[in-house]
Amino acid sequence: MTKSSISQTEDLRTLLEMLEQDIPAFLEPFASHETHGPSLKSLDSPYFGATSVAEGVGAAPKRRIIHTCEKIVAVLQGPTVKLTMDASGHLTSAVISIAVNLRLPHLISSDVDKPTMLDELVKATSASPDLLTRVLRYLTQRFIFEEPKPSCYVQNIMSKALAEPVTEAWTDLIATEYHRGSAALLDLLLDNKFDIPPESQPSALTKALGSEQSFYDYMRLENPDLGRKYALSMSAPSHGPHTLYPYAQLPAGSFVVDVGGGSGHITAPLARLYPKLKFVVQDSADTIVYGQSVYGSEGLPIDWQTVNFFKEQPVKSAKVYLLRHVLVDHPDRTSLQVLNCIANAMDEDSRLLIADAIVPDQYGEDSDSLLNVLDLHLLCMFNSKERSLGQWKELLESVEKDLEIVKVWRTDDSMGQEALMEIKLKG
User: Fold this and answer.
1) Residue 407 host element (H or E)
2) Closest Cα partner for 94 from 154, 157, 183, 160?
3) CA triple 362-3-49, angle to 5 deg
4) Residue 223: what pLDDT?
5) pLDDT of 76-115, one tens digit each?
6) What is the rounded distance in angstroms from the CA atom of residue 280 to the CA atom of residue 132?
7) CA dist., res. 176 & res. 178, Å (int)
8) Which domain holds residue 171?
9) How far apart are CA 356 and CA 419, in angstroms?
10) What is the value of pTM for the model shown?
11) 402 and 255 share a domain?
12) Are residues 34 and 143 in the same domain?
């Protein structure tokens, strides 16, 4: 593992030179597509998150630009301000949860020529003007909403995202329940002598919730409203690496089983593309009912099954078993239970596809900041983790029927964050 050039310098002039190289490289794909680059103001920006015309060629420069800017901020802030800001991240969670619960993303105007006035928000929310002013001052300074004139507010692309149901649910979960879990993490580790529990329960989050159930069982048995919000937060259509597998080469009538497939939001687009295949979505009863209500009327070749994936897999010898973002929610011990059930159902022609992150071989400041955040979310919620390729291989080799990775599928320049591992029975 070699340290990046960014991590080897703190000279501001050198960092500036790096930006002068990487910014044109990042913008080049936009120019070739005759579209403008990223924008906070434009509500129809072609650039949003991980999906953009800049992916592939532009992804590596984008990461370097972000890393360089983070380095510049750290150098300029110094230890007192930097540590104060980092230790105060809980305030961002609190303010976002206030904004979401007051429905500010739905109340504030998108028209820069007709901004929403503070007194309009006071009337619509019944919140105090002092609170609204302070919440929006905090958010606008962090590029969520804009304040073109004092006490006048308009949407930008960040606040617009908060008005989208899936992003709203996901962000609110992080800012509320997941935040409570992070606050309980130290107590859990103190109770466990700073060792990570080998099972999903107790976790920091379930400790904070006062439940003796796993987080999934807590939602199912004790808090179905939270379960519905969680299901919504996970339901965004995805064009991730699971789409890279050559499903078109499978014989007509082949079974593709989406184990822990949620509402079918991953399987439904595949079923539209490959109608000659037979798809199966397996999950808990409530989730399956919800999925059928969303996709059942389309006439897609999908069989909906209520299945506990810790028990025997009912579909034998399927061509494909898909586990997308499932094992990441389970520590190794419980992940092995899932894998053993699938491996026992596989034959020599079956393939297991695991769609999850692969932690790249980077360390220190070169490690991926978003992946680090997601990894600690998993620690708080499930006592689980994001895994490196070596850790994935070690897990697969521990299955009762040995499994081996045939191929790792990645999108262009994905750097291991999202990947698809194609796996077969060994031997």
Assistant:
1) strand 403-410
2) 183
3) 55
4) 93
5) 999 999 999 999 999 999 999 999 999 999 999 999 999 9
6) 48
7) 6
8) 165-233
9) 6
10) 0.90
11) yes
12) no
